[in-house]
Specification:
single chain, 254 residues, alpha/beta, Rossmann fold, five-stranded parallel beta sheet, 12 helices, 9% strand, disordered N terminus
Amino acid sequence: MVQAVDVTSFITASEASKKAFNTASLLKTLSVNALIIGESGVGKKSLASFVLPDAPVIDASNFKELSLLLQSSNEIIITNIDKSPNINTLLETIIKNRVRVIATSSHLLHEPLIDEIFSIKFDILPLSKRNEDVVKLIEKFSLEASSIFGGDNHIDLDSFTPDLSDNANSLRRQVMVNCLLEDIQDKELMDIIGHYIGSKLGSNNDYKKFLYLYEVPLIKEGLKRFKSQLQLSDKLGLNRNTLRKKISDNQNYL
């Protein structure tokens, strides 16, 4: 299935992203194939679509549909070419049909035809090495959240720890959830928890099994606010030993 363009526009606040964008700008003026390498969520697809804005975008795992497109298109964007179920046949088809290709991959490929097909290969660094881009993406996703949820969803960067485990993908999700929770009501929160546990109920110990969903945020935020277990136990009306046990039981989440 032909894909839509990546949700993240390519941000060029850092030197690394500026360098990648300059390479892409050069590619727009040349009729050569290129391989863009990087982790998921770093902007490979966005940059490829910048180079070939009118080209269809398709994942290499859709081998049958991709083969048909290679017969009917003059230029194409192939994402995740490293995950192709038959990469040698794919590469041979690209050569045979003389299609201009911008491809993305999570790593450099070593098949013999790679160097013959892709005269330009370049990397996009992960967001963990592009701090300036992270700030701009947080601003972008906050504005997007405001348009969806309403209100002025400003994120305090000093107290916000970005989730970059999947680069822009995890960061966007984190910002969206953070903005959603800013004005959430009790019933909405209960509905969210209810939706989460609804399909998971059925064992003989479900009450104890899901109690952490209440206890963990209460303890975590309580410790953050009151700074000590002694003060928190007093505020919660719990025996200090009981609080210590609950902290120990939920250690994986705290």
